[in-house]
Design a protein that fits this description.
This protein is an alpha+beta fold. Helices cover 42% and strands 26% of the residues. 23% of the residues are buried. The C terminus is likely disordered.
Length: 191
């Protein structure tokens, strides 16, 4: 428990990191889930589906954990003691407009209340959905208009966002040498 808490705090205090690899965010979220299970005793299974080729894509910190936290806090069941099941998926969408990363978190609770759905889909901060509102604001700054959020009910609450991926150019030996030279020149100027 103490190790999970320590790891969680270390991740949260990375003040200089707005973006992390998808793998890092997934690892942090796994740690958060272990922490919540230990603290609350709530039974929970998590099903991950993340394509290997996108694990190193950069994503905003807490972009998955925010939705998982909401599942732990708000997913209610009709039967007492029913196990919380969270499905987390990330996939690559290739379109004519470019490549996008689609991240979806779905739980098996009773879904979003209609009023809350209206508030978070219309971006109306009413004192609820603070984590979602903050994530949306950070993404707006990071991605301008190249990010979309969708919140809906489908056998439970579904939180989904689609963000543009930066185009990657294949680095050649010349590119690597040029970048290394620029890095070295920058270090010389600092001295």
């Amino acid at each position: 428990l103490i190790m999970n808490l320590s790891e969680h705090m270390r991740y949260l205090l990375q003040s200089d990191c707005e973006l992390v690899s998808l793998r890092s965010e997934a690892n942090h979220t796994e740690n958060y889930i272990r922490l919540r299970k230990n603290i609350t005793g709530r039974k929970c299974d998590v099903i991950w589906t993340i394509a290997e080729e996108i694990e190193e894509e950069m994503v905003p910190t807490l972009c998955i954990q925010t939705f998982v936290e909401n599942s732990f806090k708000y997913a209610k069941h009709s039967q007492v003691g029913e196990k919380l099941i969270i499905h987390i998926s990330a996939s690559l969408l290739e379109t004519e407009e470019g490549n996008f990363l689609n991240i979806r978190v779905r739980d098996n609770g009773n879904g979003y209340d209609e009023k809350i759905l209206e508030e978070i889909n219309d971006n109306l901060p009413e004192g609820r959905g603070v984590g979602i509102h903050n994530l949306k604001q950070r993404c707006k700054i990071l991605y301008d208009n190249r990010v979309e959020f969708f919140f809906y009910n489908d056998g439970g609450a579904v939180s989904e966002f689609i963000m543009a991926l930066e185009e990657r150019k294949e680095e050649t030996g010349e590119d690597h040498e040029s970048r290394a030279k620029e890095d070295e020149e920058g270090k010389e100027k600092e001295r």
